[in-house]
Every structure is written in C-alpha cells, then in structure tokens.
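Proteins fold reproducibly. Consider a sample protein:
=====
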Amino acid sequence: MRERLLDLFDRALLNLAPPSPQRLQQLAANHWMPFIGAIVAIGLALAIVVPLALATKSDQNDPFVLRSADGARFVAEVNGDGDTWVLLGHMFPTKRTKPTHRGIWDKFADRLVAEGYRVLRWDFRCHGDTPCVFSKRPIEDVPEIYLEWEAAIDYAVDEGAEKIYGIGVSMGGTSLMQVAAYRDEFVAVSAISSPNIFPNKPPKDSDRADEDGFDKLDGLSTVADIQVPKLYIAGARNQCSYWQSNRYFQRAGEPVRFVLYETDLHGTEILDDEEIGPDAVAEVLDFLADPHGITGKEMHNLAPGADPDDECWPPNDDENDEQEESAD
C-alpha cells in the first residue's frame, strides 16, 4: 500500500509540472479551462487523500508474518490502537467451527477494539493462512503452537505494549496456560473450553508417535506457576471441558474464577452465542478491566445439574474417532 501511494504521489507531482508556453496559450484560449481546471484539482486531491485514508485502515488490519523461535512463520493481524494489548489464540477445528483460524475471533475482536484494546491474533501453524510444519494435518503441529504465543508476546512488547492480556479457546487456552507459567509479561490470562493436555493422543498412523509417546501441550502441570489472575469459562455439556476447566481452577493459585454455563458450545461459540454470549463477553470484559477484582477462588456455576468434579477423561471411543477425523 505504501509503495503504491508513493508511486501515485510521484506521478501526481509530475502531472503538476508547468506546461510549455505554447501549451499555456492553447489552454488560455479554451473557454472550458476554468471548469476543467477545477475538475483536475478535485481529482488530484481525491487521488491523494482517498488512498491515504484507506491506507490508514488497511495497514492496521492487513495480515503480516511473524516468526516463531523454531523458524516457523505464521500469519497475524493487529486491530485497534492503544498500549493495552489482548492476545487471542484460536481453537482446533470442531464440527460446528471448521476450519478454525484467527477469523473466529472477528466478533469478539471488534468488541475489544470498541472497548479501547489493541488486539493481536494469528493463525496457528497448519491453520488458516499459516503453512504446516510437520505434516498437512493440523494435529501434527499442535504441540509446538506455544511458540506462536512466545513470538506474539515479543511482538507486542517490541511495539510498545504497556499491558498484555492473553485469552485462548480450547487448544489456544491450553497452550496459553503453558506459556503464561514462564512468561511474566501477562497482566491476566483466560482459557475458554480448554483441555488440560492436547491432543490426548496422536492419530494411529502419526509419524511423530514413538516409544516415548506423543509430545503434547500440557497446561495442567504448569498452571500452578501462573502468578497473574486467571479466568476459566466452559460449557457443562461440552464433552469434558467443564471437568478439565475445574481441574485448572482447583490447581491454580489465587486469584482465579471459574464460570460454568449450561451449554454444549465450545470456545468462541460461547462468546458469539445469542443467548449466553452477552453474559460470557461481559465476564471477560469485566475481568480485563479489573483482574484483581477476583478474590481468592470464585466459582460461578450456572449449570447446577453439572458436577465439575465428575471425571470424564479420557474421552470415549467416539470422541477419539472425531478427533482423528478432524485431523485428516
């Protein structure tokens, strides 16, 4: 965009060069000259001003490429302005949300921008516009997506972020729990519908499966090391996410809050839902506005029929089959 603007500006300046004396006499003799001159002036002004206005908006939301510590490149975008940043990590494909990429945050990102936050979101490796590293199946690249969080944090810091919040859905939340344990840039973090370990096991024919098993994201083993306030949100009928969110809640240090809804929705589906979405979004916004408004360990159970202590992991065979199908 900037290169096109410079080229346009150079050509505009050339067009402004004074004509020859002969040409001036011809133009002066033309009774349409004042009218044509006005049209040319207006056209030239629009040619410069309109692209400049469009560039301001386009440059802010244009996708760009970041690089992870292992050399993998991933596509990201920034929305909004300000020194308070919210980093958003998306989820793995589901039956209702497939494919998944940074675009699943569109509605919530708009709300964050309206609230004055600067939003950084991206496509994890092997999702959306970001190429795969290990294979064409997203499941093979999941264990390394924490590296995208690290690169996103570094970028926000380099851009002058004074406060950084992290929000992840499903695997985005699991990887966030892993990274927030050793990166101290976060003011507060939130995980929505996030497993404790992801993936639970590799596809049967995974090239990455070996004698030591499959490397996994592991948020549960590190959650106790996260020093900042934490917010967990889950649906009571969404497979086992409520039980796993409760395990985060129980192991996490204070302050921490767990909100459980009577729904089978997952991740950003909760935030975008017409019925429970407004309440869930309000929970997150209130948390961002005052993370330390949470005191101790707070449970807000809106699904009284659900017992978060009921164990339901590992998933049954049908759920394993669904995971492997989504990885194809």
Q: What stands out?
A: The domain at 65-327 is CATH 3.40.50.1820 (Rossmann fold). Residues 1-58, 313-328 have pLDDT under 50 and may be disordered. The chain has two domains: 2-60, 65-327. Residues 33-61 form the longest helix (29 residues).
